């Protein structure tokens, strides 16, 4: 891992720890709400095993997860599209991407996830295109997000969904989502107790 990426990840991990400890008072809308370091390491490994090249992320926040993924996907000259609606978080994410020197890899699309996913879904060139997807956004629309994403995932493509187990207030929604996936004949899926809980879904046809 190069120094630019390593330094930014360490800085963001320190900030995330402070937020979680409540030692700093950060408004809810401005909190990182990022994946854990353990999940970042897991994503990095899966991307390398998959040799993924084209990634879609729903929920940029301040860019922590995208930087982890950019570190791996860059080895295949890959690209990441990440979606975020909060202008303040977009500004922070772009600054972090600059410091990590990954702006040539990551493209931020600003707006609501539903609208942007619908736009991407309508483009013929995006059918069966993304070989790796990370969903880490609001939980209320998680099934609709997935349904829009699945046609854009390549056969054998991996879709990872965060927060399957924690925070506990989301468990009912995420259990409903997991059950929904399990009856879909086009995917195979399982929940792993990594970080905040990750749903690992593979598109089989």
TrEMBL record:
Descriptive protein name: O-methyltransferase family protein
GO MF term set: O-methyltransferase activity; S-adenosylmethionine-dependent methyltransferase activity
InterPro entries noted in UniProt: Cation-dep_OMT, SAM-dependent_MTases_sf, SAM_O-MeTrfase
Keywords for this protein: Methyltransferase, S-adenosyl-L-methionine, Transferase
Record carries keyword Methyltransferase: yes
GO biological process: methylation
Domain of life of the native organism: Archaea
